[in-house]
User: Which sequence fits this backbone?
């Protein structure tokens, strides 16, 4: 069964000032037993997430809402296992793909076609599978012969279309999105919209961090509200929006 | 440490990913240059040729044996120093990937190692050229290069992983490594031969110098000699101890790396 279960997960991390990162400071710090080089300890410890618990099962479309800096993106990175939790446990069953940065790993020097393979491999799709889908992706980008030119010759719109097409070809069981992705000119937007909808529909679990309440109401059936790293609400979407607005 | 080992093997298994990356790195570096990777070979070739002539004359040694020695020493040093230098920059180089998607760190390490090995084999062309020119024949001992390279990669990969991880935390480390390596190049018998020294100095710069053994296991087979048992022992133990320390490092600090880069 596809699921994401979080039990009391917390995430702490330290931010090192420029000083604390240097070897000299670390050595001075040892030598002086931390007395002289008090500035060497310009380390800030941050509790980004505090004891968050939730369960998501097949069919759940979970919205993550909260103001800027509430921990939405951090939570998505924890669910993607990019960040390991400091406390608590996280159990994930299912093929999970984070779509946090559409232009992830685009190699500017390489052709669009090469980049399709790159991204596919990074997301855990085999060369054969990509081969089977490559024509469809290229057709979708509407790049035509440009697909064999290096990406740094593309216009910004073309780059977005390429990145978008590559990112959305996968059909993961668990999909994570940091804001709804959309791309391109008016004509392309409609196409992109349909594509993302298809992807979201085929995903068994969706996590969507968003500021748009209309979007959340439209798509999600569950929601959590984060505030300063704490989960202050977990339940249905209407309740979450009310809790968020009451903040 | 099981989790850490698991991640490492998970990454090694993704052969398609890291080999594609490594191959494209090499191609990207020489994109639109006409000679491409030949530049790499040419620059080392010129260096070896001129140093060989100058130091051959200074030391007054037989060029037909000095040139293979110098060439192979240079190529081995190139490989070893790349492990250190590339290693200390690896995670900074792929920072955006580490922050955006979960890929085992060993994928990046494997990519880097393959890149370094491809350069090594390119450079071997110089040795082949030198060997043919001086009609130098290493004989059957040349096959010892295979276990030697295996052992080198085994050591190189932990060096990349450990230095890469420490360098994202201590940003001074890559600079320190670069300057130490420069000094080590002159202290390690590459241009000069151990037989030119005597007494305690010789012991410290050869047998007590791990970099000497690292060079020696690659160089000796191509000179037609079996590397000394001591060199195999040193490199073997370095691999075991090195990987153990690296796994310990990962156990305590792996989680911090995405925040550090």
Assistant:
């Amino acid at each position: 069964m596809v699921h994401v279960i979080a039990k009391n997960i917390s995430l702490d991390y330290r931010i090192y000032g420029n000083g604390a990162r240097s070897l000299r400071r670390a050595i001075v710090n040892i030598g002086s037993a931390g007395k002289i080089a008090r500035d060497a300890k310009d380390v800030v410890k941050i509790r980004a997430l505090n004891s968050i618990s939730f369960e998501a099962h097949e069919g759940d479309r979970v919205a993550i809402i909260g103001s800027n800096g509430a921990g939405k993106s951090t939570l998505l990175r924890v669910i993607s296992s990019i960040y390991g939790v400091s406390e608590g446990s996280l159990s994930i069953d299912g093929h999970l793909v984070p779509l946090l940065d559409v232009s992830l790993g685009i190699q500017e020097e390489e052709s669009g076609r090469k980049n399709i393979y790159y991204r596919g491999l990074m997301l855990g799709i085999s060369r054969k599978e990509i081969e089977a889908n490559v024509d469809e992706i290229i057709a979708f980008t509407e790049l035509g012969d440009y697909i064999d030119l290096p990406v740094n010759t593309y216009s910004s719109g073309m780059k977005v279309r390429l990145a978008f097409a590559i990112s959305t070809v996968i059909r993961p069981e668990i999909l994570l999105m940091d804001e709804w992705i959309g791309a391109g000119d008016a004509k392309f937007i409609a196409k992109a919209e349909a594509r993302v909808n298809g992807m979201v529909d085929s995903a068994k679990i969706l996590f969507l961090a968003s500021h748009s309440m209309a979007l959340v109401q439209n798509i999600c059936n569950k929601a959590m509200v984060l505030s300063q790293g704490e989960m202050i609400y977990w339940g249905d979407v209407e309740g979450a929006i009310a809790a968020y607005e009451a903040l | 440490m099981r989790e850490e080992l698991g991640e490492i093997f998970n990454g090694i298994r993704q052969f398609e990913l890291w080999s594609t990356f490594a191959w494209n790195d090499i191609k990207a570096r020489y994109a639109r240059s006409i000679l491409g990777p030949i530049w790499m070979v040419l620059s080392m070739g010129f260096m070896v040729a001129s140093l060989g002539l100058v130091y051959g004359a200074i030391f007054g040694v037989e060029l037909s044996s000095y040139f293979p020695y110098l060439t192979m020493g240079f190529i081995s040093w190139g490989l070893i120093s790349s492990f250190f230098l590339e290693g200390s920059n690896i995670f900074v180089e792929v920072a955006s990937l580490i922050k955006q998607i979960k890929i085992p760190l060993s994928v990046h390490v494997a990519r880097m190692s393959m890149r370094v090995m491809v350069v090594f084999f390119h450079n071997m062309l110089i040795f082949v050229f030198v060997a043919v020119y001086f009609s130098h024949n290493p004989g059957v001992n040349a096959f010892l290069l295979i276990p030697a390279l295996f052992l080198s990669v085994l050591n190189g990969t932990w060096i990349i992983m450990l230095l890469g991880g420490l360098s994202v935390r201590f940003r001074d480390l890559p600079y320190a490594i670069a300057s130490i390596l420069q000094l080590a190049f002159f202290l390690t018998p590459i241009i000069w031969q151990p037989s030119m020294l005597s007494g305690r100095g010789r012991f410290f710069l050869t047998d007590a110098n791990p970099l000497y053994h690292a060079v020696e296991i690659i160089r000796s087979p191509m000179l037609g000699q079996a590397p000394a048992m001591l060199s195999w022992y040193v490199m073997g133990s370095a691999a075991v101890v090195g990987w153990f320390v690296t796994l310990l490092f990962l156990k305590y600090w792996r989680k911090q790396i995405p925040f550090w880069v």
Remarks:
- The first strand of chain A starts at residue 3 and ends at 16.
- Chain A touches chain B at residues 13-16, 21-24, 26, 77, 80-84, 86, 98, 100-101, 104-105, 107, 109-110, 114, 117-118, 121-123, 126-127 (CB under 8 Å).
- Chain A has a mean pLDDT of 84.
- The two ends of chain A are 35 Å apart (CA to CA).
